[in-house]
Amino acid sequence: MPTVVQDRYAEVKARFQQLFEAQQIQLNGHASHPYHQFRKEAMKRLEGLNFPTRRDEEWKYTSVNRVLQPEYQLETPVEVKAAQLQPFLIDGLDAIRLVFVNGAFREELSDIGKLPEGLTVMELDNALADERFGEMVQRQLDSLMEGQEDPFMVLNAAFARHGLFIHVARNTVVEKPVYLIHLAAPGEVPTFSSYLNIAFAEQSSEASFIEGLFELPGAEGAYFNNLVNRFRLKPNSHIHHYRLQQEGREGFLISNADIEQDGDSTYSSYAVDLGGRLVRNNLATTLNNQGTGTNFYGTYFAKGEQHIDNHTFIDHAMPHCQSNELYKGILTDKAHGVFNGKVLVRRDAQKTNAFQQNSSLVLSDKAQMDSKPQLEIFADDVRCSHGATIGQLDETAVFYLRSRGLSDEQARAMLQHAFLEEVIEFMKLEPVKDFAEQLIMKKFEE
Amino acid sequence: MLTIKNLKVSIEDKEILKGIDLEVKAGEVHAIMGPNGSGKSTLASVLAGREEYEVTDGSVEYQGEDLFEMEVDERAQAGIFLAFQYPVEIPGVSTSNFLKSTVNAVRKAQGKEELNAVQMLKLIREKIKMVGMNESLLQRSLNEGFSGGEKKRSEMLQMALLEPKLAILDETDSGLDIDALRIVADAVNQLRSEDRSFIIVTHYQRLLDYIVPDHVHVLYNGRIVKSGDKNLALELEEKGYDWLKKEAGSVPA
Lengths: 446, 253
Prior knowledge:
heterodimer, A: alpha/beta, ten-stranded mixed beta sheet, 9 helices, 20 strands, B: 253 residues, alpha/beta, Rossmann fold, four-stranded antiparallel beta sheet, 8 helices
């Protein structure tokens, strides 16, 4: 009965409202800051929105009930020692490291050093008040909220306190990648953390961002991370976005990446989803002009009762653009995977090349995969393909490997690893690739 | 080395092998010939441990042990190698990683010390030269997109690395041009030794111009209908299989 559902969410919304007000009291004199105004408006907007139910086509296979039930508290300060970061540092990677714990930026754990020329990293509220960037940031925030009906996006806008603004100047190639570590440190009370990052790549610039989503070793408990990344790519700019996700056993993650690309720009996403109790990733790009490239490469590996849902959307609005999408994953035990990839080729988007593939290995009777590749084409001169496969390991390959002396277990592990490897291979940064492989190896051993 | 007695094998209730007897001693090379559908590949597959075949009667002893009690990987670890007629393409597994894993898996099972990266590289380089394979294939996914000849070289490389006691070549020569055929033959000839045996299953006599077998058996309709020395192969080349089919047909079952 819809009314009951609405009532329940009304209660959830009221709880978020209370949290917001409690936070507001702590702001003292900052209440008039433009960033706070933005957040207040977002909170107001939330009132008019409903959290999705499984009746919504976009949420058919993922229920957010579990995510919204706990009575969350906002980030509580947690002591984290530098040594505890050790497992998340990437061997051989010289990066600008920014560390967040439960949503709060932690300068003492970060390693920013001297930023390369042309790269600016600021906290969002400072950026918004900044003479040079203020207007630009405001425009990005506005475009995030314009017509926004996703309650999680709006919720994020209302609660993200320590978001970052990252700016890459014109004609700047930033060799040193930016590594954002989001560490969850849950405790007895369920925590709710929000991050909002805005990256702006000016014309002919290039940069790599690595996002690491982890749980503090030894920590345990329920938490909800609500994450939004906005990437704005100006003409001929190139962004590589790596996302390594190993949230905790009781972690809920809803992440939105909103990308807007100008002509001749390339955005590449390399995502590895291994952790979390329930994970929903929305990755969406809009192509403003000709000659763009968009690469969505994703892997997922879920065990136990994990639920990992990837929704992607590529909006081909202009001609001569190319998109490649490959998502591959493994599901075992009672895990549930969801893939919904929509590619829209609008009438003007002639000469579009769009490729999309989702392949999953479902390795137990109780594991489940729902895959929905969607291709909608309104232009007539395009090359597009999409497909989905769901299957088990190739037994002839298992036999072949065993006939060379590998045990059944070794053979299967090798093939599963190879299955994901095809996607990992696309990663450009070798140390990140190696690190991702290590994370996957550990997942096999779990 | 290998003793096959009255082996009967079915697949989906159809009897393919109807009583095979074969004795392979250490150091011997046996060629198994016969027309298509005679059961040659079934014999090779059963020895390697394919599960879709049902052994309905008879026994196979390998080095005094019941072969059918051994799992596929145990057979490999005990020194049985099957060169596949159609090597499987395995995307995502690099040839070099695969080779390292198998060599060490077999060494470990045989109680030998595993090779480190340097020793492994040296060994692989040495053997890759022997089979004339292009080193760049090591970085590629196993067999993926390999040409027919490259696949067979890859099989021979694996054989050379694993140093089996009993190697079974299942129509390894089919579809090969003369250069690739020589590669296969050279690999076998170089690996021939007093304590290593080969069973070479082939449809064509041509391979036996390069590998001289000690024994030749003709398989027809699930039975060995004739055995002899290398001259039998030449006779087959000259006369085809028809005279044997007639001969076999006249023998009451």
